[in-house]
Structure to design on (532 residues):
């Protein structure tokens, strides 16, 4: 009797493990392939990968992706803070005052924004920003990125805020804390790890977004500029273009760029997760 | 000071379409220990939540009737102002998990401007912990976090937090539920000794505890006050069957 139960228990444990391995193996395969192929390119190129312009199709050495790196950083730098501030503020409003008309409007807008294809966002921004300004620009790209990532940031933040147990909210109110200090001094700090994770997810979303940039940023890779009004490149844009190109050397550079993106995600995730400790309830 | 700390007339509370408190009329004299008894689900916690208007936090709750607390007509006054004078200890211990023992108490003292400088704050923290019978256990670990405390210690920490506001009214929802009999006795003594400064409204399921601390008792059953009066009288001559059962521990 006892052994029978033990056997079933073992059987199920192994089955769960097996199914999990099958489920995540494509992801692991993908990660390993990208890292293997990509790091090789980066290692071979060395520092030049970060500071040089991309190679011409028939060039001998790989060159670098400096315009894409700078462009990605610039657009992230503009877009991320705006997205986080707006997303968090909206999330606070809708979790604290769910019945308020403004909250209902915000929630509806966020849900419908999330359902617009990002390529359509790119076209909309093209029409209302790029055309009047007569130029692709990092600014237009940043605006598109913000529109695309805002509903996600909002959803991450509101899910996180809603996860704070009701008893802490009650405790805060019982010592006469105002609604805003309850949010800022109690609710957010209690779920600080969730908030940080939400910020990282937003960052990843922004860094990896491609379609939103197609008709906005301008894919300018013949030089490096940090003017928000000038056309710019981005790492995922470069990957997109180079992978589809017929030139072997560009495809190699695309591997390198992918690995760089992946590595930077990992570094950011692990450092922040390590630095921000979970609050034990 | 008013003679009545709390006065309720025909108070009805609805949550959604459920009628939770029914025509509650109560008079709670100042500087007394007023005990509320009643079976689970009878509305004791809800009654406490009306007094400091935490009931506002419940999305679809509606309160009708007249409630006067410490001279405030609470339906017409600012709940944040009102709450400054009312401390509460909850049924489930809820110290702020991201703050240390010290900070948990200091935050309550600070919000109400009770302390003027660091030294005064230290004194209040110590005073509150002593009153809550926790000082000896945590004096050397004030910078530990609540999750490092036992359940009973957490509950006493919550009492200390409430006391640090220097409230005029203290709402205690089964404050000794997680505490051993020895500490519970000490806490009862502390509660009784607070009477000079505060009015205490306390929920308990233990008739013995009620008998030890109560000046007045109200019995709640299915949202209605079935009996209320001076403790002695109520314990010696309970006038309803519900009270008799409750006192015999049969409910
Ligand atoms: N947030 C809420 N939403 C809906 N119903 C609620 C809520 N809080 C309490 N109630 C209902 O109100 C009634 C009274 O609840 P209350 O918590 O006041 O009981 P209690 O006397 O404190 O019980 P206990 O001794 O178990 O703590 C119960 O029937 C409960 O289901
Ligand atoms: Mg209760």
């Amino acid at each position: 009797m006892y052994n029978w139960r033990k056997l079933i228990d073992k059987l199920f444990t192994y089955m769960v493990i097996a199914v999990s391995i099958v489920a995540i193996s494509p992801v692991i395969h993908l990660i390993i392939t990208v890292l293997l192929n990509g790091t090789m390119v980066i290692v071979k190129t060395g520092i030049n990968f970060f500071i040089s312009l991309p190679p011409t199709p028939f060039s001998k050495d790989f060159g670098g992706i400096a315009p894409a790196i700078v462009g990605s950083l610039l657009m992230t730098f503009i877009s991320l803070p705006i997205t986080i501030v707006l997303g968090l503020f909206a999330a606070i409003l809708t979790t604290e005052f769910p019945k308020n008309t403004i909250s209902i409007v915000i929630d509806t807008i966020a849900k419908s924004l999330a359902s617009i294809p990002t390529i359509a966002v790119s076209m909309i921004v093209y029409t209302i920003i790029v055309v009047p300004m007569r130029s692709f620009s990092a600014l237009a790209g940043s605006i598109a990125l913000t529109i695309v990532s805002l509903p996600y940031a909002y959803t991450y933040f509101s899910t996180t805020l809603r996860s704070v147990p009701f008893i802490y909210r009650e405790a805060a109110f019982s010592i006469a804390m105002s609604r805003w200090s309850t949010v800022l001094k109690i609710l957010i700090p209690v779920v600080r790890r969730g908030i940080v994770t939400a910020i990282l997810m937003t960052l990843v979303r922004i860094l990896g977004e491609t379609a939103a940039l197609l008709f906005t940023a301008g894919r300018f890779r013949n030089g490096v500029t940090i003017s928000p009004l000038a056309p710019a490149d981005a790492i995922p844009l470069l990957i997109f273009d180079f992978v589809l190109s017929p030139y072997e050397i560009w495809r190699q550079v695309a591997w390198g760029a992918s690995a760089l993106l992946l590595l930077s995600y990992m570094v950011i995730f692990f450092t922040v997760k390590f630095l921000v400790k979970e609050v034990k309830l | 000071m008013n003679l009545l700390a709390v006065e309720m007339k025909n108070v009805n509370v609805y949550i959604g379409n459920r009628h939770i408190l029914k025509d509650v009329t109560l008079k709670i004299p100042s500087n007394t220990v007023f005990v509320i008894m009643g079976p689970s689900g009878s509305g004791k916690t809800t009654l406490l939540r009306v007094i400091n208007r935490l009931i506002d936090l419940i999305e679809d709750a509606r309160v009708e009737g007249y409630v006067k607390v410490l001279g405030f007509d609470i339906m017409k006054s600012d709940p944040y102002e009102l709450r400054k004078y009312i401390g509460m200890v909850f049924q489930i211990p809820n110290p702020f998990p991201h703050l240390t023992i010290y900070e948990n108490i200091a935050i309550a003292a600070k919000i109400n401007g009770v302390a003027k400088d660091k030294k005064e704050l230290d004194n209040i923290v110590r005073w509150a912990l002593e009153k809550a019978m926790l000082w000896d256990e945590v004096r050397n670990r004030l910078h530990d976090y609540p999750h490092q405390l036992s359940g009973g210690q957490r509950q006493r920490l919550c009492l200390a937090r409430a006391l640090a506001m220097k409230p005029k009214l203290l709402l205690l929802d089964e404050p000794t539920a997680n505490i051993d009999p020895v500490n519970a006795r000490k806490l009862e003594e502390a509660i009784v000794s607070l009477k000079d400064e505060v009015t205490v409204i306390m929920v308990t399921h233990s008739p013995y505890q009620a008998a030890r601390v109560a000046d007045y008792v109200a019995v709640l059953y299915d949202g209605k006050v079935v009996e209320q009066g001076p403790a002695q009288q109520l314990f010696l001559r309970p006038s309803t069957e519900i009270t008799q059962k409750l006192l015999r521990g049969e409910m």
Notes: Residues B 44-45, 91, 173 surround magnesium ion (ligand 2) (CB under 6 Å). Chain B has a mean pLDDT of 92. Chain B is about 35% helix and 25% strand. Residues 118-131 of chain B form the longest helix (14 residues).
